[in-house]
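Format notes (please read before filing issues)

Several people have asked whether sequences and C-alpha cells are stored in separate files. They are not. Every record keeps both together, in the order shown below: the sequence lines, then the C-alpha cell lines. Line labels are part of the format and must not be stripped during preprocessing.
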Amino acid sequence: MAKRRPIEVRLRIDFAPAGSIGPGKIALLEAIEASGSLSRAARALGMSYRRAWGLLDDLNRALREPVASASVGGTGGGGAKLTRFGRALIAAYREVERIAAGAAKARFGAPRPARSDARAVSAALRRPLTRPLAKRRRARTRATKRR
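Then the structure lines:
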C-alpha cells in the first residue's frame, strides 16, 4: 500500500493584471531579510541574480509601496533591505497560507473510509446523478412515441 503524503498547499495570489505573489517571491523576500543582500539571497535559493532582481522589481512596481530597497555596491558593499511594507507582506502571505493549509487538511486530510465503506459512499454519490437522467429519458421516449 502506498504511503500517504501530507497535504500541502502552494498558494499564489494574483492582485493585478501582471502582478502576483507566491512561494518563490516570498522565499526571495525572506532570504533578502536573512542575508541583507539580493545576490546572497539569489545564491541561497539557487537562482540567478538577474532573475532575483526581476522578481523584486516586479513586486516593487506592482504593489502600492516598495517591498525592498537596494543600495549600490562600493567599498562597503551594496545590500538590500526589506521595507516595513515588505515585512508586512510576508506576514500577511504566511497567515493566508496557514489558514488555507488548515482548511485543506480539514477538508482533504481525513482518513479514508474502509474499502466496504468506500463502495457505499461511491454508490450513494452516483445515485442522485443517474436516477433523474433515467426518468427524463423515459419521459422523452414516451412523449415521442405518442406523437
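For reference, the curators noted about this record: The chain has two domains: 1-111, 115-147. The chain is about 65% helix and 10% strand.
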